[in-house]
Specification:
single chain, 385 residues, alpha+beta, Jelly Rolls, Phage tail protein beta-alpha-beta fold, 3 domains, 3-stranded mixed beta sheet, 24% helix
């Protein structure tokens, strides 16, 4: 059988469109060890991350595919079940993105995994990456085949297991234009804003701090545990809590790392310092701690909490915000790119509230207030005089 026809059958099978005769043909084709090796050596999936292209461990993936195929061939010979090889070979492919969306197969010798920018991704141990479709539900399975959590729509809930096991980290990445929620194994709930990533242990270690790493913006509802402080590391700043609610914003392109306390208490301090009560600043509800990356100073003031939490519901509350900062927020929320040819606007401050308006309505309102013109070019917005 011609390879092009087999390739078409594989794609149809993975999209649940293959007929019984096509499944039989594919099973027979995989009986040939050379075909099985070709199948394992030249599999590549395309899917997405917001900020870059990631390289997967091709040797590990190939080894896993071969292991599953060879294991099933032995079982198939014993039980004479012709279709098991196809089932496990497909599972080996889907292993890279179990249950999360369509897979496009390419047969070539490239080792690069290309991820569409609009996809939410979950990076498991050993650099395995899954795409998460936020309108579906599925189990979250680690590299060893263990169920570690459950995804339901735009939320993942992790199971709590033996806390004495070695730390294994996952990383959730949310692209521009989307938001996502996660419940960690200790019960802590985290809402991630657009353009954000969170790195965290699948299970926290007994007797040690609960530490996660944030890049972007998130709202934390931390499960109380006085014996295990919860620490968020965000670039140059750490926030230490025992159980509380707070919002933290640490986008690389922003000048400030902002921590806004909603309830309870948190201590914030420089990452370069070892935590001590006398080298940290304790916030009270309603406080915003703003760390300047340029001046290396911390400023604490009471703030308008709602304006910092509006993003959770898809709203924007702008209170005396510089125009440049507004454009950054809009780029993240609506996944657009701005080209500002009207530099005079950069020195102006705006106050506005947008509920769930689309970007067209937002730009109409801003242009009216700021007295400027603009034009759409695909996902690019050109601002003029």
């Amino acid at each position: 059988m011609k390879f092009q026809k087999i390739e078409n059958i594989i794609v149809k099978y993975l999209s649940n469109q293959a007929s019984l005769s096509e499944l039989d043909a594919l099973t027979l084709w995989l009986d040939n060890p050379n075909n099985a090796k070709l199948f394992s050596d030249y599999v590549k999936t395309n899917y997405a991350i917001n900020y870059n292209m990631k390289q997967y461990n091709s040797k590990q993936t190939k080894a896993h595919v071969l292991h599953v195929i060879n294991k099933d061939k032995l079982a198939r010979r014993a039980a004479k079940r012709k279709r098991n090889l196809l089932k496990y070979a497909a599972l080996a492919l889907i292993f890279l993105s179990i249950g999360f969306g369509a897979i496009h197969i390419y047969f070539g010798n490239a080792d690069t995994l290309v991820i569409p920018e609009e996809s939410i991704t979950l990076q498991l141990q050993d650099d395995l990456i899954k795409i998460i479709n936020d309108d579906e539900s599925a189990e979250v399975i680690d590299a060893n085949g263990n169920i570690i959590g459950v995804q339901s729509g735009n939320q993942i809930v992790y199971h709590k297991k033996n806390e004495n096991e070695a730390l294994v980290y996952n990383t959730l990445a949310v692209p521009y234009g989307k938001r996502f929620e996660i419940q960690l194994s200790d019960g802590t709930k985290v809402k991630l804003n657009a353009g954000s990533t969170l790195r965290y242990p699948v299970n926290f270690a007994q007797g040690k701090e609960r530490k996660v790493i944030l890049n972007g913006e998130a709202f934390f509802n931390v499960a109380k545990d006085t014996k295990h402080p919860f620490i968020v590391h965000a670039n140059e700043i750490d926030v230490r809590v025992l159980g509380t609610k707070f919002n933290m914003s640490s986008y690389p392109e922003d000048e400030h790392i902002n921590t806004v306390l909603v309830e309870g208490a948190v201590s914030t301090y420089k990452t370069s310092d070892t935590y001590q009560p006398d080298n940290s600043i304790v916030l009270k509800p309603g406080d915003k701690a703003a760390w300047s990356k340029t001046n290396k100073t911390m400023e604490v003031n009471q703030t308008h909490i709602e304006s910092h939490l509006a993003w959770i519901d898809g709203r924007l509350i702008l209170y005396e915000i510089e125009f440049n900062a507004i454009l950054k927020k809009l780029e993240r929320q609506y996944n657009v790119v701005f080209v500002n040819n009207n530099k005079d606007l950069n020195n102006r401050f705006f106050t506005a509230t947008f509920d769930v308006e689309d970007i067209t309505q937002v730009m109409k309102s801003l242009s009216y207030s700021g007295n400027f013109s603009y034009a759409f070019e695909d996902n690019k917005i050109i601002i003029n005089q």
